[in-house]
Amino acid sequence: MTYKYRKPSLLQAFIPIIFLVVALFINVYVFKDSSLDGSNQIILILSAAVASLVALKVGYKWNELQDGIVKSISSAMASIIILLLIGALAGTWLLSGIVPAMIYYGMQILNPTIFLFAACIVCSIVSIATGSSWTTAATVGIALIGIGKALGLHEGMIAGAVLSGAYFGDKMSPLSDTTNLAPAMAGTDLFTHIRYMTYTTVPSIVIALIIFLILGFTSSGSGQAVETEEILAAITSRFNINGWLFLVPIAVVVLIIKKVPAIPAILIGALLGSVFALIFQQDIILSIGELVHKGVHYQLTGAEYENLKATTSNLEFGFLGSMQALFGDISIATGNEMVDELLTAGGMYGMLKTVWLILSAMIFGGVMESTGLLKRIAEAIISKVNSAGSLVAATTGSTIFFNVTASDQYLSIVVPGRMFADIYKEMGLAPENLSRTLEDSGTVTSVLVPWNTCGAYHSTVLGVPTLTYLPFAFFNYISPLMTMVFAYLKIKIRMRQADNTETGAEA
Fold first, then answer.
1. pLDDT by residue (tens digit) across 21-52?
2. DSSP label at 8?
3. Cα 432 from Cα 417, distance rounded (Å)
4. What is the pLDDT of residue 300?
């Protein structure tokens, strides 16, 4: 590439990365699981400051850096809006009894031995149908976390199974944005891309499913101490559980299958949750409304509050309860400690820490991308490529690198896609080799990085820290290993003809 100002040295390009990695290591060591409460965000902003100093040294002006930051944040705005709406949806789906109903029926169908295996398959199917790992995690994923914890399973294992299935479906669905983005960057068509991905993706998910099945048989003993009947009784003591509640998640899935954009589809799901809460959970929504009203008028004496309660309509209390579920914290007390832990939600407010993390990550990614520091590192990687195997390994490493540094799965596909397209062409490789590698390594590893938009989103939605589920998200790190194994063993490596059309021949 042509650099606008003086070309940075490789050491200069690595200085912000080294600072980020060292500072994050120290920060996570000191703060542990609470590092996402704000300290990691500060580290990302300080890393952006270090990158800015390097950029200023090679000739960039502050206004140019600021433009890069704004552009980077703008690219994440859709994800931020979706994240906030998912918070609202989680709140109303708890209030309406949808999530409790999923837990209630799921506990009667699933058992600890096959739970992880079944959870992965269920999430795979839903994600293929919707084309979205985010929607899958925010709907059936939340319910499966609740069911699995009630059965006594480790939350990291449950989240790992959910995300393995969700990202398998996300990769293989023609409705997925990344599944459409990867072939567009590589220069092939959608269905050729999907067919070619099956060679590496199916073995990866099969291995993951086998591991989950083994884990189920070896760790299910912890669930035997859970009193299922007590949990079911605690849920039914507060909620009106019935099959009609499932109309809301079915409606959301249908909307997404019909290609309704994610933002309006999720908003509709959240509002339907409020409507169903008013229909089926009137006692709960009124009691929450009363608590909210009491909080607003906390300065009133007991007698004054009772008088206010007597003169306030149920409609107003219902409105207060619905709004609280959409934007704020709610918790439903049942008297069962385990169930009470499951029946909590934070609404849009609960997503603000994650929004802060995403903004901080995009500030760092914006400086690194707009000033060519990431490109400089990529050039050094490309210079070492001398075979199909090393090219795929370099592509895989670059996508993971961009997931860690640019903090966005789309950049991990777009930037390496642009970087490597000509090299694949020069080496006589068909573009589907590149598109497959981008998805096998870029899409799936984004969820393993705590400050990546995907890692931050899923850890917040599922309520499981990234580093807790990371060891169990087997599909997500088997997939990039599988694509490199295929390349080095020259399995299903399709070549081009001299006129740049596919030969159909595979090395």
1. 788 778 877 886 566 678 878 988 999 999 99
2. P
3. 11
4. 45
